[in-house]
Amino acid sequence: RIVFVNGSYVPFEEANISIMDRGFLFADGIYEVSAVVNGKLVDNEAHMARLDRCLKEIDIVNPYSYEQWIEIEKELVKRNELKEGCVYMQVTRGAAERDFSYDKSIKPTVVAFTQVKNIVNNPAAETGGKAISVEDIRWARRDIKSVGLLAQVFAKQAAKEAGAVEALMVQDGYVTEGGSSTAFIIAGDKIITRPLSRAILPGITRLTVMRLANEKNLTIEERLFTLEEAFAADEAFITSATTFVMPIVSIDGKQVGSGKPGPLTKRLRALYLEMAG
Ligand code: PDD
Q: Which structural domains are found in the chain, ordered by start?
């Protein structure tokens, strides 16, 4: 397995970073995940644009140009002969003597690697997955794809222990998003998802699903929805780079709709798979 660390492609076992890395000490960094299907990156341009925006938000100069990032991703896909899975990229502020404030001259640490994943032929997509709800205890800038993910670690561990594929995070009765995904519900012919704000990560898959739905004249409603509405929905699904469109068939043990992946959800998944090639 070959990984990328600070400009070099090295065997995984030889890769290392400093114990003073601010990503390690302060979660002072951001990350990005792009899907790979049939050896090709999916929706990658938008992922790279979000990486760039997130770096600006936390005052780190993007160490690479768009073209250089693409080259790193493609090189990793090639060297690891990755057919299906994802490329994970992380940029932290870099290593320096431990101090909360930072010197702008610190050189960022860049790490990237591939992971094999079943995205297209994921058995959970056929049956649909269970979800649980948890309180959203995260910070106020969830639009930044920060590596500070402890609240999501709690949420997703609780999901796993409940045999669920995702935890829906809830704030003031409203669903914000999934632990690592965007949440959607369907009521009648309306596909409902929360509008973008600092309360959620602007999902790349979310945006593409909305575009594909629009092209087919399906109705998307961007508005807040409650957990109660999700329980009562006809269909529910989550989206992310590593799951695409994943049907949710129960929440907190309550069956959603028919308890099987619904027709609109299946259609959106098919449209997304077609786009991903
Ligand atoms: N997570 N919301 C959160 C909190 C996420 O972590 C993610 C993605 C999404 C979906 O974004 P996108 O469609 O751009 O993948 C929404 C990635 C996959 C992860 O953390 O591994």
A: 2-116 (3.30.470.10), 123-276 (3.20.10.10)
In one-letter notation, the amino acid at residue 229 is E
Q: How far is the CA of 6 from the centre of ligand 1 (A)?
A: 24
- Residue 187: strand, helix, or coil: strand
Q: What pTM was computed for the model?
A: 0.97
**Closest listed residue to residue 230, CA positions, set 180, 172, 168, 179:** 168
Q: Which helix (H) or strand (E) holds 186?
A: strand 182-187
> What is the torsion angle, in degrees rounded to the nearest 10, for the CA atoms of residue 111, residue 149, residue 169 and residue 36?
10
Give the residue, by CA position, lying nearest to ligand 1 atom 20. Answer: 180
Atom 5 of ligand 1: nearest residue by CA position: 180
Alpha carbon nearest to ligand 1 atom 3, residue:
180
Tokens of 260: 């099987």
This model of the complex carries an ipTM of 0.99
Q: How far is the CA of 226 from the centre of ligand 1 (A)?
A: 20
pLDDT tens figures, 203-255: 999 999 999 999 999 999 999 999 999 999 999 999 999 999 999 999 999 99
115: left (phi over 0), alpha (psi -120 to 50) or beta: beta
